[in-house]
Amino acid sequence: MNDSSHSNMVKPEDTPELRQLYADFASEHLSPLWTQIEDLVPFVPSPKAVPHVWKWDRLYPLAERSGDLVPVGRGGERRAIGLANPGLGGKAFISPTLWAAIQYLGPHETAPEHRHSQNAFRFVVEGEGVWTVVNGDPVRMSRGDLLLTPGWHFHGHHNSTDKAMAWIDGLDLPFCYQTDVGFFEFGSDRVTDYATPRFSRGERLWSHPGLRPLSELKDTVSSPVGAYRWEHTDRALTEQLLLEDEGQPATVAQGHAAVRYINPTTGGDVMPTIRAEFHRMRQGTVTAPRREVGSSVFQVFEGSGSVFLDGNENKLGKGDLFVVPSWIPWSLQAETQLDLFRFSDAPVMERLHFDRTLVEERRR
Amino acid sequence: MNDSSHSNMVKPEDTPELRQLYADFASEHLSPLWTQIEDLVPFVPSPKAVPHVWKWDRLYPLAERSGDLVPVGRGGERRAIGLANPGLGGKAFISPTLWAAIQYLGPHETAPEHRHSQNAFRFVVEGEGVWTVVNGDPVRMSRGDLLLTPGWHFHGHHNSTDKAMAWIDGLDLPFCYQTDVGFFEFGSDRVTDYATPRFSRGERLWSHPGLRPLSELKDTVSSPVGAYRWEHTDRALTEQLLLEDEGQPATVAQGHAAVRYINPTTGGDVMPTIRAEFHRMRQGTVTAPRREVGSSVFQVFEGSGSVFLDGNENKLGKGDLFVVPSWIPWSLQAETQLDLFRFSDAPVMERLHFDRTLVEERRR
Amino acid sequence: MNDSSHSNMVKPEDTPELRQLYADFASEHLSPLWTQIEDLVPFVPSPKAVPHVWKWDRLYPLAERSGDLVPVGRGGERRAIGLANPGLGGKAFISPTLWAAIQYLGPHETAPEHRHSQNAFRFVVEGEGVWTVVNGDPVRMSRGDLLLTPGWHFHGHHNSTDKAMAWIDGLDLPFCYQTDVGFFEFGSDRVTDYATPRFSRGERLWSHPGLRPLSELKDTVSSPVGAYRWEHTDRALTEQLLLEDEGQPATVAQGHAAVRYINPTTGGDVMPTIRAEFHRMRQGTVTAPRREVGSSVFQVFEGSGSVFLDGNENKLGKGDLFVVPSWIPWSLQAETQLDLFRFSDAPVMERLHFDRTLVEERRR
Amino acid sequence: MNDSSHSNMVKPEDTPELRQLYADFASEHLSPLWTQIEDLVPFVPSPKAVPHVWKWDRLYPLAERSGDLVPVGRGGERRAIGLANPGLGGKAFISPTLWAAIQYLGPHETAPEHRHSQNAFRFVVEGEGVWTVVNGDPVRMSRGDLLLTPGWHFHGHHNSTDKAMAWIDGLDLPFCYQTDVGFFEFGSDRVTDYATPRFSRGERLWSHPGLRPLSELKDTVSSPVGAYRWEHTDRALTEQLLLEDEGQPATVAQGHAAVRYINPTTGGDVMPTIRAEFHRMRQGTVTAPRREVGSSVFQVFEGSGSVFLDGNENKLGKGDLFVVPSWIPWSLQAETQLDLFRFSDAPVMERLHFDRTLVEERRR
Fold it and tell me: Which positions in chain A touch C147 (Cβ < 8 Å)?
């Protein structure tokens, strides 16, 4: 027998003795495998999380209203509104491992400093004027930038302008919550440095391609760079498409340029639990449907198109976010040139050797 | 401000507008951080799982009764009774990452072959007569042995004797369940080889200290050894204590010998998510209280003593099992010479850089 | 006894029997340790190679004269003049592991393509107009650039201008020669691509700080970048000194900025046997005398100063090269701001765990 | 053009000006590539070392005579007679990277303690009665054992019996000599511990298959085991051949069992520069001719057969040694069951990515 079902299983007879046995199990804090194996050990990953799309033009006004009604400060720590996967019972978890939130900071507000085991980043889909201060280093946040606050780095934010700003936070918070690994500590109630330099010290030390400061030869668990600027990302993607035009290998698939953000001390992912990538698809490009173990979150940075999630088409515009739970088939279609930021828990899957990918035959 | 409490937090005023905002959040599948930060981002790990001890002399009779009432075969797959942490709502999870069960196989019974992404092992506290067949290689199970069935290895068990046998299964099943990584496949309804050799082929190829077959030079994700025999474990621990007697460094602490089971191709843990160790404490030895990120399960192999879990003493005898959830202080006290098997999710914590340990000053 | 000398050694008596024994050794291709141990196993590394300085204004005219008298083409392959360590018996080895040469290419000349196991690079102290074509990818060579041709990459050079150009070649050729590891193969008699793009394809794909093409996720033994441009090196060093001015940690020592060229896929050295670095010292800076296992070659890129080699001062000007054999103490003194390129065999020493460094107390 | 010859090379015209140029090169310590490229950059490795066989029945009597004529003690340090490759000009180097010597210790003699950067081992083809004391740990030396003294470990030897003993020393001494990496230090003039335990402390701590002491979790550059006993090697080889008989994959080729000695903390080679293996061939087995980058030394442990070195057959008996220089084709033929110990510089080649192997079609 080798069919994919537990249906014709060998079952115990329902007798008073069996019921008594089950009652005795319960009183001894025991629970049999044979009654729950279908749920616990599925044939393929069967996430409770569901695919879902959040529209930026619905999120942003709610963030604005929070700006009016909810103070930001010590205790609540952040005016961050988490995207709650409809399949996960209302908890602000976009997937079982990932957190995604829109964070909003009004004119001249400060989000106080703290640190935690959870790895975090911010990605900016629009706006500017906020500096995030990471271990004392002020880091400008502008459209298209990826900013890191790896685990146990102090960080706070301040808005130095007269205009509010919102961005996306990504964390491994649900993973940390489920596995009980998180520590948290308050830092300064204000940020420790209100300077607004164009480039952070981390960037000035590290953002030189192929070069490493001789004063920093020890590899670090997370990237020391801190800020990945849009100008570099955009140029890298532009060059990939130009190289493709010249007939050179450069893109991941025809019409599909992509980069991974890396820790320059290792060439690996920026943080131990979170992968971050940026994708650019030429107008009209369609990706082959894929299934991957682990979950991903995408945000449209520019352009419009569709994502097919488990067979259902969802229209996408600037700022829209969607989640792809584990093993759910997905593909993208670019109506215009389509730029997307992506983050995922892939480093967890790869480090623990649970990663698998299935690329389906492309539809014709 | 730097005190360890969220109590004097900045809070929004409870107004109709705020309530409407929260309602609008809910309808858009959003959830604010500021109302749940205490739960989601605790100051130290705050596991839902609780410390708990299961007594072998309560477990074993229940397993025996299952042997009478519950058939073993395709569908239910295993006559395994999971230890359900009282803090985890009745699911058969001993911790958020680990599964521990007592499995029982009657005379001449067979548990059919299957494979799954979940990493598994068996540890034998008493008995003999069962062979587990792992990817076609029959592996004898005897008292004191650790037997591996790493992820995606086919495995089934058969009892070749007239007496029942029970043992402990350990898996990363809860971790896999929470993170949606598991695949499962049926194999043969019987085991593929009913031979009962004293040593498995994997042992004959690999269990020679400091030697590696030249035909097997590629490192493997999990240990290729398959069976770790009691005679080796016992001798290693005996030698450590003798070396200690001779004034040589060998034990982890005075009176406390310990070994880790390893993958000989890398020197690292036997499987990507599970660490396995064996500890021997001289009579009268007390360990310094420790807190560790991640959860552990211990089983007493021989001897008697106590475990202090979060300050509470629990008496231990042969076969008793207990779980230490993340960051719960624990220490052991040996009334007689005390032998314990231990497994944990430490490789997960270390590979993702969440590991932390706090050893408290020893009480005097 | 623990003094550092073999002088009062136990010696055999010089008898006819001993002489016969030694003769019998020789006829059986044997050789005793006890007569040569002082040479073979010194107390500290005792290189045959000596420290030496080559003056650019002596090298360059000789390279020019070679341009008139020696054709470049298949067979001789390169118009390269090796720096021959005076201690190494006339072989063109600057150290037992490293090769350094000045290579000269006249107007519109081509050095044909070939490939070899030896790892190579070029560094340009002055001039422009040559493109090196590496595995078909044309790479511009300009002042301050480091250009790689890792082992077994096809490469040829062509001068696309009306002016000659010279530069420095660095290789692990002596190491490969001593250990018999080298393979060599001819390629095209011309270069395969005479295009003269500003940036090579490798740079366009890889020279974006903190970003990795998703099409190139496999780590490579040598850096895929190919060209490290002066503008990046200069900016990295400038920023380090500015950060030092701001009181931030950034330099290796006060007044001493430095970068290592790295393979972005790993964060490690650019090639398995060769380390490359660039150092900038503020006017007046003096480095602490150091001894290091392994040999290094420096070239002054700009400025003037001195190097103290085994206690002897040597004046340095633009283009001058010097070698530091293993364990010879060296220190640098900057008369003006002093910019130096450095390469060494440090990766060999580190990968085989022979690396040691001794930094002497700074003279006051 | 792509033929494998430098013959039709472009050559400069032999003129007075060229001769003057060459003279000027010499006076400036320069040396052109184009006149020596054939020697420096060969098409395939062209070792100066030659294949050679040393007969044990010629070596041993010479060692005995040394025992009579040459004292052992501080200064000469060891009564070791190096095998001098006939192609390497009389230096006691068996290859450019490796040293092999027969060492002889008379009844109750002591070879004093010292340490050096060079990695060393001893292999015992016959005899017993000597203990080597490594960092204070006495290690019994018996037939078939491999004993390590990794770089910078203090070591001395003493013969506790009334009979002389001889064995083989292997080191990376020539490599260290060529690359100037060696340090040396005297230790005690006697050995620090004259105890004669059956098992060293290192073995008692480490020689348990698949187990690692919890007190020793840090990986070490070289193996902590120290002694690899014949009984384990023999059993591993025996099992491989039995598994082959059962139709199971276990041997490297039909009739050819082999193991590599490994560092249990990493699964890798025992020392950073030296690989050690043991091979057993069934009677009649012939290996496919191979070429490998790097050099190897073999010693026949038991049995008789032939080695074909660069096409020439050499008869082999117990104790005979032979060297295979880089890229020289070799194959073995077993007249009886043939047991061989092998060591090589393969870790150097692999860590620096110069390794290549060419297995020729087996002759029919």
Answer: none
